[in-house]
Amino acid sequence: MSTTKVPSPTSRLRLGHARVDITPPVGIYHRLWGAARHDRATGVHCPLFADVLALAPLSEEGDAGRPQLVRAFLDLAGLVQSQHRDAVAALAAGAGTRPEQVVLTYSHTHSSGWFVPDRIPLPGGELILPYLAGLYDRLREAGQQASAALRETTITYATAHSAMGASRDYHDQDGGIYACGYNPDEPADDTVTLARFTDAAGHLTGTLVHYACHPTTLAWENSLISPDYPGALRKTVERVTGAPCVFAQGACGDIGPRRGFTGDVSVADRNGEQVAFAALAALTSMGLPQTDLSYGGPVVSGATLGTWRDAPHSDASRLKETQVFEGGAFTVDLPIKPRPDRQALSDEMVGLEVAEREAGARGDTVTARDAGARIERARRWLARLDDLPTGETFPLHCTSYRLGDAVWVASGGEPYSAIQTELRKRFPSTTIVFSPLMGDLQVAYLLTREKYGTGLYQEEPSILAPGCLELLTEALVDQITRQGAVTSMSGRSAPASRDSELSPPGAQRY
């Protein structure tokens, strides 16, 4: 049977947007790279922003006037769980909603500064607590502004592709090791999803660009505060559209820029422009809001022509479908791998600090740099141990919201991109917008099962055992299926999921 209609993925709802500047002060603790030889930020490349979206169903019943979902996107590497909770509470207070209705994720730029508590005693650390206090105030302000700006909005989705990001699991054959860098021999998810926001009159009011790639263009040689490539991405799209552009990071545990690990900010800008041009291509491919591309029949000309037109969503069932607004938060219990010994880590740090000082004194910068990097790894593991629950599983925080023809899903940690490609395969008629780093920073990476035991860097900081990504994927498939999205495959068994005060109404245990 011939296809006569190609739906344009659409969400119809109420939406409000607010943006606040969250750039840290120059001089704040900035060292996120073990190989870096600086501690303090020396300047600003581009400002950091928090983009906050307040979303609510079109229906005026019940909690009218208040958002049912607040989505915040921050230009930060991430915050530890206590800081993350404080940021969520500030957004909820400003928006007049509950903390469990707030989903906060991060771009994961590695040039934002690093604000974990164990850095407070270090150079620049004295600025961390005052900065965080100001950050919470700004988020409260943004939540209030976004909630006040709620208005009828149509979101239309389209996709394109950008080769800026690539697999970063490179096998160094000569060295017999894996290095975390561009791997031209393995394909990577290059999907760019563009969400166009239009008001009731059909005027463009904003865009959202979803793309999976670590913001690691700028690395240890850079001492400037920067959003990395998302800064130029937003700026380029906004210059063309005249409307705000929000960046949403995708599942990028195994994806980084082809050209990265540099101190040259112009490379970060070019990387952002590259993704922006793909997003703009997706934008120009769209038809009018609230229309589907429909076959109009043959027209006899020099040839018999098949005509297609943008047909309005006039059917009641189609309109109802695009207005679906449901979802909530839940946790998925994932297995924890054996923990490293705390005393051994502390002893290792002491020895490395001595080696770093001695190497610096004799002018051996390479040995000093390598010792500093290993100190950084040990320090991060000690911080993770402080944030781990007792027991053999970790309750990973997740959310799933069906918004018309799209599902916006998020999880803690840094999953490999296979999770979003698998969700797209399972739900081919649904637009999937997957966001990582919804808190749970201590979890680090979720690798695919076959990647464990191969010597990849990502396994070293991960607290989770093999199979974690597959278990999480099945739990999300189950949740999205319950929300009415049609799967193309029969689901397999899913892991245990726990109800809590964060769970959506009617949520079940897996």
Note down, in words, how this protein is organized:
This protein is 28% helix and 28% strand. It has helices spanning 81-95, 128-148, 229-241, 265-284, 316-322, 342-361, 365-386, 418-426, 468-482, and strands at 5-6, 10-21, 43-44, 49-56, 69-74, 102-106, 151-161, 165-167, 169-172, 177-180, 191-199, 204-211, 224-225, 245-249, 255-257, 291-300, 304-312, 325-335, 393-403, 406-411, 414-415, 431-435, 445-446, 497-498. Strands 6-5-4-2-7-11-12-14 form an 8-stranded mixed β-sheet, sandwiched between helices. The model is unreliable at 490-510 (pLDDT under 50). Helix 1 (81-95) runs parallel beside helix 2 (128-148), helix 3 (229-241) packs across helix 4 (265-284) and helix 8 (418-426) packs parallel to helix 9 (468-482). It has 3 domains: 5-284, no CATH class; 324-339 and 390-498, no CATH class; 342-386. The protein is built from 9 helices and 24 strands. With 510 residues, it is of the alpha+beta class. The longest helix is centred in the last third of the chain and has 22 residues, at 365-386.
Q: What is the gist of this entry?
A:
With 510 residues, this protein is α+β, with helices and mostly antiparallel strands.
Query: What's the total count of β strands?
Result: 24
Strand content: 25-35%
Helix content: 25-40%
Overall geometric form? globular
Query: What's the rounded overall pLDDT mean?
Result: 91
User: How do the strands of the widest beta sheet line up side by side?
Assistant: 6-5-4-2-7-11-12-14
**Radius of gyration, taken over Cα atoms and rounded to an integer in Å:** 23 Å
| Low-pLDDT ranges | 490-510
When the domains are counted, the total is 3
Structural class: alpha+beta
What's the end-to-end separation, in Å? 38 Å
- Number of helical regions: 9
Q: Tell me about the biggest sheet?
A: 8 strands, mixed
